[in-house]
Structures are given as C-alpha cells and as structure tokens.
Amino acid sequence: MKLICFSAFVAAASAFAPASVSVSRAASNTQLYGEFGASSTSFYTTTEKQDTYASLEETLQNKCKDEKVRQVIVDMLDVCADITDALRTALVTVEGSMNDFGDAQLSVDVIADNLIWEAVKKSSVVREGASEEDPVVRNVDEGGEGEFTVCWDPLDGSSIVDNNWAVGTMMGIWPKSTGLLGATGRDQVTSLVALYGPRTTVLVALDDGTYEFSYGCTPEGCQLPDGSWEPWICSRSNIKIAEEAKIFSPANLRAAQDVPGYKKLVDHFMENRYTLRYSGGLVPDVYQQFTKNQGVFSNPTSKSSPAKLRLAFEAAPFGLLVEKAGGKTSDGVTGGSILDVQINSVDQRTALCIGSKNEVDRFNEYLELN
User: Fold this and answer.
1) Which of 48, 271, 297, 346 falls 20 to 30 Å from 136 in CA-CA distance?
2) Is 48 a residue whose pLDDT tops 70?
3) Which helix (H) or strand (E) holds 52?
4) Residue 322 in contact with residue 289, Cβ under 8 Å?
5) Which part of the chain is the Fructose-1-6-bisphosphatase class I N-terminal domain (predicted)?
6) How far apart are CA 217 and CA 241, in angstroms?
C-alpha cells in the first residue's frame, strides 16, 4: 500500500474542467487517489513502514509522552503550514533591511519571521522566543505558564529562494529548566526542520527517533488508510541514517585552501566517486540524509573562512534530528558532538560536520580532531 499526494494534479484538473461539469472534491479525490489514496501518478510516494500514514495526533500520542511537548510541536507545525501558504503567494523581493549578520532580508524572510513570532506569542506553552533575524531572547509568556524557549531560523536559504530553490525553517526547543544560555543542544526537548519544496515536509524529534510529517497533499489534507483526511500525516517513521555514505555536501570549500585536511577529504570524495549534492541551502543539503538514508554535510572553518552556521538556530536543531536517526555530528574543533557544545551567546557560530557516522569519523580523522 502506498500513499500518494499530488495536489497540483487535483488543482489542475479542477481548473480545466468544463463549466457545465460539477464534480465534488470528494468524488474527484476518490477517482484520483483510489481507496487509500493510491495512484500510479504522483510527486510523492513513500514505502510502507510501521507507524507511517498515521495522523499527527495519533503519532504524537504514541511517540511523545510529554503533553506540553506535543502541544509545542502542534503549534510549530501550524506555523509551518502558514509559511507554506505565504511562500506560494508572497512576491520574493528584497525588503531593503538587513538582519544583525548583514544579510539582506527578503519579503518572505520577514513574513516567515512575523508568523513565527505570532505563533509563539499565542502558544500556551512557549515562554521565550529568539529569531536568527534578531538574536535576542524575548519573553512572550503573557499568561506565565510557558515551559519552552523556541529558537528559530525563519527561512534559511534567503540567497537561493529567489531562484525558486527549496528553502526551510529550523527550530530548536529548550525547556524552562535550562533556558538557552548555558544549555547545550542535548538539552532540547525536541527540534523541527521544515523543507518547503514541491511539497512541505517537516522532520520532528520524538521520544524514540526522528519522524517526518507531510502537509496538505490536497486542499482537504492527506488521506489516511481509514478514508479520513488530515492536514498532517506521518510520512516517514523512525528514520535511520546508515553508517556509510556516498553522497557529500561540501560547504565552505574556500577553507580547503587553508585546511589541508579538508582538501584531503574533498579529494577522497572525488577519487572514490561520491555523488555531489550541494545547493548552498543548509536545510535541503542536510535533509536529504533522511530521504536517502545516508550522506554527509561538512562545514569546517579557517581564519580566512570563519564559521557562519549558528549553534542555537541551525546546528543544534539538525544535530538532534541526525543523532536520533543514528547519525553523528562533529563540532569541527574537538571532534565531539555538536550537541555537547555549550551555548554561551544567542548568535554563537560553529563549524559542523553532520551525517553518516563513518563519514563524520573520517572528517575528524582527516582534520586531525581526534
């Protein structure tokens, strides 16, 4: 049994239907999807796995024991849906404003950031928020019952979004007991990474691993095996990243001119005929490890090519997801896990290697970090 999501097909069919023909959405869905949403034509197909195709509510009930963590996940998925709609309709233009890191903000960056601020302020379980666009931790808990600090990169990939390439949102969520400053990535109660491509999918760290949820396969949502429709479904369950990889994403290649070990590593990738898949967007470049079940992303630093990745907004959220899926991370300095690096400032930056275990070990070895 396979689950198929192709809202573009449904929309196109409706748009070109003769005016005299009235076809109900439910009827057209039945014709297109079949009994359980199956069809031979799609742009999304998953292999059947245990726990896959369940609703968001069912998956969280079974895989996330903390009720408040479940609530913050739902709240953040809701805003990812809002960002999806904004990306489909907003004109991508330069706002003329700059964030604290000197990056030009695009209209969609601003829209996404504003939507998340609204979401954390409305959430009953969020205590504090911090955006990469304005890296200050702010209290948003008017009711005084908030439990979590949410840090986010609202739309990573602003340099490629105008090309209509895939971009994403990253969120790390810390408990009130640790807050953000002085905590580590390992203290996160969960993290989420959303990828906005032909479809919207979100990776979420749950109690026993990393799960993927898909949004809005059709205007009604996604059809479950029981015939019901939900806005979010579990499309991949308990994802695993293999120890070996043949896909590499080499960020900060300029550092290879300064770091002999990095040049040696890149030469190893090429000589052993690894597949190069690198877009310059952190979300798609790391996200592919969960769909291909293997891969390595490397981003070392040097004096002339300093770190750009932010620990709290990017490295820690992805690090939790990768390690929960059986992968490994390196801080690029000591060779230790990125999840063990203490967060001493909101805008703290870091080197990073992340992905298949043996490839991260090779990175540490070649750069002499062990």
Assistant:
1) 297
2) no
3) none
4) yes
5) 74-215
6) 26
